[in-house]
Amino acid sequence: MEIDRPNLNVDELTAYASAKHMAGVPDSEIQEDIVRMLKNDGWKEAAILPMISEVSRRAKGVAETKGSPKSPPKAPQDPTATIMAQLVQLLSPITARLEAIEQREPQSSVPLHTPESHSDPVTTTAYLERPQKKRLPDLERFDGDRSNYLGWKYECEGKLEYDLHLYPTEDAKKRYILSRTKEKANQVLLPWILENRLSSVEELWEHLDTQFLDVHRQKRALNKLRHLKQGRRLVRDYVSEFNQLRVESGQEFSKSVLREMFSEGLSTELQRLMLRTPKHISFKEYTEEAIEILDDLYRINLNSRSQERTSQHAHGISHQKSARTPSPPERMDWEPTKVSRAGTRDLRLNSN
Predict the structure, then answer these.
(1) Which tens digit of pLDDT belongs to each residue from 58-78?
(2) Residue 19 buriedness (CB in 10 A; 0-12 / 13-18 / 19+)
(3) Is the full-model pTM beyond 0.70?
(4) What is the tens place of the pLDDT at every residue in 324-351?
(5) How many angstroms separate the CA atoms of 60 and 87, rounded?
(6) CATH code at 250?
(7) Which of 8, 93, 114, 282 is most buried (most C-beta within 10 Å)?
């Protein structure tokens, strides 16, 4: 008889587990065999654990009913022959199914469980399927150009902070920073690291700041920051340049000082509207508030201009219609008057 798609059930597995238990096979080995068979039979991980629990419960009940394999049978003449007969009887219903499973899906060479590991199969699968944290791409290598140093430094610090699990120690951080240098920068940093192996990352940055930080650029940025104005441009552009100069200046400003410097550069109308901004918010929130207010003003002005153009267009059409409609002509009297006829007759008599 041809066997259809194999599908192990709890009765067959209970018989298999009971027979193995009576033969003295350890419970852990029995469980591993059942897990392997269920996996090969196409069972999902979420259903394997409940099945194993049910099989274990039933097999335990069978063992208590028939007695422990270690206790002598009540009236057997040949214990070995009796056990073998029981095994053959219990295993015969699932022998064909197990053979069909092995033919359909070959057994994996990697064991599902090892004696050293007793982890839950569902937990193990969930761990393997857990998405790994993405890492930031590596920075371009710094060649010693002072105009690019400050941006490279901040990007490098961000990389080390985000991928902290990859560079957990001070030595690992210093090695990574060194790997992102070349030419002049590498020639400056490598000897310093070799001579200061016990130094910290903070000391490394102090050394690089001394070598590559443009002090005059900082002064120029600070001076420009103090005199920066919004002018006729959008607040977003003003905020972008303000933050860039703030970073390039290398100065640490308090929140109140930053707000005052930023507010002085805004347009007069926007300064008045920003007076009601709460004092406790951060500088970033303060700049975002300025951008939002200016966006609202822009929408209001845009709607006002649109309504004004619509009104002017409607008024122009009305004026054109009134100009094109001519007024009715006045009625003219074409009948000559009697005075005119008399005057004409008198002229003729005089001429004769």
Answers:
(1) 877 766 665 544 444 444 455
(2) buried
(3) no
(4) 555 555 554 444 544 444 554 454 545 4
(5) 16
(6) 1.10.1200
(7) 8
